[in-house]
Specification:
- With 629 residues, this protein is mainly alpha-helical.
- Among the domains are: 193 residues, no CATH class; 43 residues; 32 residues.
- The protein has a two-stranded antiparallel sheet.
- Strand 1 and strand 2 form a beta hairpin.
- The longest helix is centred in the C-terminal third of the chain and has 48 residues.
- It is globular.
Length: 629
């Protein structure tokens, strides 16, 4: 199967082209073509993984064609098939296919369903190109493809102006991050002489720490934009404007996971840049707390899940910032998160479907008996993200908390403390979501008739719920997932954290239990106000995303507008003014000279006479020695 790895990208890409160009004749069955294309990627992924497991060499580079033969810069288009890329291939293929199937029913009444599925296929193809590329330059093509697809899908209902603005916001913020990847590419070529993974990683040990730090920081900037990490996280909440399956795909298998992949893939670069690596961990720690605080104050079910994604990706970035000891656990949590977050988003879509597209959790309540499948599947995802044993989050997120306590000085206490606190906050805000939605008294508005979704929606949710329950345990047995990634992340010597593992585990579970208990008392036992009560300044700040848009406006938008207006003024008044002045002077001079050409013979004769007299006068003065020459 290794020889047809390219088919995993080609199938959804070709399907997207057919659906976009095929016209309305494909409206009746085009969505099934998209499902078949995504399924092809999943099947290829399973086959490639089986093939890779049977080989002793688990890193295979496949040359596709010569891409840029340009003197010193020679780049070929190729694929790198190794445990890291195959893990993403399976995640994107399997979870992406389940989301495609779910979307068949979810988007059934939309007149542009064929276009929607074309964009979904494009999203999958771009993400697979990103993770399978064998060079940073080809990765950049997939990186931009993912950005384009997210823009098209977030703004899919762009007849609604706020939805169009949300797509624009995501596009602009991601372009800021993309500047980092472009600069990193330039630094790689200038100082390492290559943009291929093999060439960059071979040259990295001989490069100076300053160069590697600069490259590492630029890669981190790129990752912050794509993975919605501090300080470029503002776009992800607004991205909920897109259809719910889009949110599931962005948060679980594509887009936001790309930044984590970039950091882990660039491990050899960060090996020589400890400062940049530490900053990755710090950004992750800040972001996981930021997302948790915001999630506690939201009433929109999708925005709570969006804040949750920001926080969980923060855990992954924290792990990646710990270096080789954390790389495998970052990807481990990324895989388990892909299943339970996709399940939670599809569950949220099911609730919206049954509640007339309502997203305000204060208008839910009491849905457990009316939407039993959704209640059970979201319940399993809820337990998984909380890290309750034996569900998947317990095996992946708790390992990140443990390794965060490894190190010397204040570093393990700060990073580990942030990870530990985040676990308690996660338990509270996700329990708040679950209890407000499914328990307590129903707070439905008139005309709402809660009902369970069709099998096309519930079956993918059930499969994802099974993964949420069991996947972590399967991967954790004998550290099988860590062993699987060793060809990429390297073998790591075991280190003991500053706190004993049982102590860390106990503290984590106690905080989780406290979070669940507090949320249960407040949102399951006590009445939930249908209108959010007047909140303290701190809660108001959390509801407004800790004023991240205001901060961005002050730091980026207003200075940018001022700079732009200044440049426009300078261009109009200085540059154009100078050009216009020269033009006006030339015209004026021409007007003066034109008066000398009046066409009158007597005037010409008089001027000639005056000229002769002047010349004769000069000659006479010179001869008489008057000192003129």
């Amino acid at each position: 199967m290794l020889s047809v790895t390219w088919l995993a990208i080609a199938a959804p890409l070709g399907s997207a082209a057919v659906l976009l160009l095929g016209g309305r004749r494909l409206d009746r069955w085009g969505h099934w073509l998209a499902v078949a294309a995504s399924t092809t990627s999943a099947v290829v992924g399973v086959g490639v993984m089986a093939d890779l497991l049977s080989r002793s060499d688990r890193a295979v580079q496949q040359h596709l064609f010569d891409w840029i033969p340009g003197g010193e810069l020679e780049v070929s288009a190729g694929l790198l098939v190794d445990p890291l890329s195959v893990s993403f291939l399976l995640l994107v293929g399997v979870v992406g296919t389940l989301i495609h199937v779910y979307s068949v029913a979810y988007m059934e009444g939309d007149p542009r369903r064929r276009t929607f599925f074309a964009y979904l296929n494009l999203f999958v193809a771009a993400m697979l190109l990103l993770v399978l590329a064998d060079s940073y330059l080809l990765l950049f093509v997939g990186w931009e493809g993912v950005g384009l697809a997210s823009y098209l899908l977030i703004g899919f209902w762009n007849q609604n102006p706020p939805f169009a603005s949300a797509a624009n916001k995501a596009f602009v913020v991601n372009r800021i991050g993309d500047v980092g990847l472009v600069l990193a590419l330039g630094l790689m070529f200038a100082h390492l002489g290559s943009v291929d993974f093999a060439g960059v990683f071979a040259s990295a040990p001989t490069a100076s720490e300053g160069v590697l730090t600069a490259i590492g920081l630029m890669l981190l900037l790129a990752a912050c934009g794509k993975s919605a990490q501090f300080p470029l996280q503002s776009w992800l909440g607004d991205a909920m404007a897109g259809p719910t399956p889009v949110s599931a795909l962005i948060h679980a298998a594509t887009m936001v996971t790309a930044g984590v992949y970039l950091i882990v893939r660039s491990g050899p670069v960060y090996a020589g840049a400890p400062t940049a690596l530490l900053l990755v961990a710090i950004v992750g720690a800040i972001t996981l707390l930021f997302g948790a605080v915001v999630g506690m104050a939201k009433d929109d079910i999708k925005r709570v899940l969006a804040a949750s994604t920001i926080s969980q990706i923060g855990y992954m970035m924290l792990a990646a910032g710990l270096g080789p000891v954390g790389f495998a656990f970052a990807i481990f949590h990324l895989i388990t998160h892909g299943f339970f977050k996709a399940g939670l988003f599809l569950g949220a879509g099911s609730v919206m479907h049954g509640m007339g597209d309502q997203v305000d959790m204060r208008r839910f309540g009491g849905l457990a008996t009316l939407m039993k499948v959704t209640w059970v599947t979201m319940g399993l995802g809820w337990l998984a993200i909380l890290g309750v044993p034996p569900f998947s989050g317990f095996w992946s997120k708790d390992r990140i908390i443990e390794v965060a306590f490894i190190g010397e000085g204040m570093k393990p206490w700060l990073l580990g403390g942030a990870a530990l606190l985040g676990a308690g906050l996660t338990a509270y805000y996700m329990s708040r979501l679950f209890f407000m939605t499914f328990h307590g008294k129903g707070r439905w508005t008139e005309g709402q008739h809660p009902h369970e979704a069709s099998a096309l929606m519930t079956v993918p949710m059930i499969i994802l719920a099974v993964g949420s329950a069991a996947l972590g345990l399967i991967f954790a047995i004998g550290d099988s997932f860590v062993t699987w990634l060793e060809p990429v992340t390297g073998h790591v010597t075991h280190e003991d954290p500053v706190l004993a593992v049982p102590v860390i585990m106990t503290l984590t579970l106690v905080l989780v239990a406290l979070g669940i208990g507090l949320a249960y008392r407040q949102y399951a036992l006590l009445p939930v106000p249908e209108t959010a009560p007047v909140a303290s300044l701190a809660v108001q700040a959390a509801r407004k995303d800790l004023y991240q848009d205001s901060v961005n406006s002050v730091l980026l938008e207003y200075p940018g507008q001022t700079l732009t207006r200044t440049l426009v003024f300078a261009d109009a008044k200085v540059v154009d003014g100078a050009v216009n002045a020269v033009a006006a002077g030339t015209v004026g001079l021409g007007g003066l000279v034109r008066r000398l050409q009046a066409g009158r013979v007597r005037s010409y004769a008089a001027m000639m006479l005056v000229g002769v007299v002047v010349v004769l006068g000069i000659v006479i003065l010179a001869i008489n020695g008057k000192g003129w020459f």
